[in-house]
Design goal:
The chain is α+β, with helices and mostly antiparallel strands and about 250 residues long. It contains 6 helices and 13 strands. It has helices spanning about 20-40, 55-60, 130-145, 195-200, 210-215, 245-250, and strands at about 5, 10-15, 45-50, 65-70, 75-80, 90-100, 105-110, 120-125, 145-160, 165-175, 190-195, 225, 240-245. Strands 8-6-10-9-12-13 form a 6-stranded mixed sheet, with helices on both faces.
């Protein structure tokens, strides 16, 4: 069994080096535990692919516990002391909704199958996806409208949400580039329409919180997507949103 040492006095096990024979694996794990104990290593990590799932009980018996899970990989960690810091698993899912306004200040809204009122188009931000790209994709899939991201004007949190995680939901102000509706995601979306802001806000079949939020921020300038000098290298931020102030405009 091969492993590397990390800079936090931990051990990262190479899952591709696990022996196929169960007996050999048991011996390797015993030798690993002896090494961890003698060298006083803080943590040991292994991300086991689903193809090696038979090895999971052996690591559990050796003191490893579940840390996080993806579709085809389970990460285990051995923590010899409770005061040893274990980086936490992701705690939030991210979603985005869109206030898409036409040149005549009509708002684009959708009705999901099985629902009564209309809501803003939007959905989940996928892993590694920018919020700007996500909301443009969602609007296109749900309405067929090409829209340009302008700013973030609102965000909400919900605890708990799916899978026991919290949720961050960003509301994006967008400008419509096309007008003809053509629903692509017909399995989820039953209808999509342009409607005047007043008509949407006054309709009690629509979500009260949506109507209140839209009435407050539909024409807000919000946080603009911004790039700054020095945003490069390994710690580069893929999205930066800033309020544009009168002072910054004069600099």
């Amino acid at each position: 069994m091969r492993f590397d040492l990390d800079r936090f006095n931990g051990v990262v096990i190479d899952p591709t080096s696990l022996p196929a024979d169960i007996g050999d694996l048991i011996i390797d794990i015993d030798e690993l535990i002896t090494y961890l104990t003698l060298q006083q290593k803080s943590l040991a990590w292994i991300s086991i692919p689903i193809t090696s799932a038979a090895s999971i009980p052996l690591f559990i018996n050796a003191g490893f516990t579940f840390h996080s899970c993806l579709r085809d990989v389970l990460t285990l960690v051995r923590q010899p002391e409770h005061q040893t810091f274990v980086p936490f698993v992701p705690t939030h899912t991210i979603g985005a909704g869109a206030i898409v306004l036409s040149d005549t200040n009509e708002i684009l809204v959708v009705k999901e199958r099985g629902s009564t009122g209309f809501k803003l188009p939007g959905g989940h931000v996928e892993a590694t996806e920018r919020i700007q790209d996500s909301i443009q994709r969602e609007v296109l899939e749900e309405t067929g409208i090409d829209a340009e991201f302008e700013s973030i004007v609102d965000f909400t949190t919900k605890h708990p949400y799916q899978f026991g995680k919290s949720n961050l939901h960003f509301i994006c102000q967008m400008r419509a580039l096309t007008h003809a509706i053509n629903i692509l995601d017909v399995d989820e979306i039953e209808d999509a329409i342009w409607i005047s802001l007043d008509s949407y806000i006054s309709d009690p079949t629509n979500s009260l919180s949506n109507r209140e939020m839209i009435s407050r921020v539909a024409f807000s300038s919000g946080l603009m997507a911004t790039d700054i000098s020095g945003n490069s290298g390994p710690h580069r931020k893929h999205e930066i949103f800033m309020a544009v102030s009168a002072i910054s405009d004069r600099l």
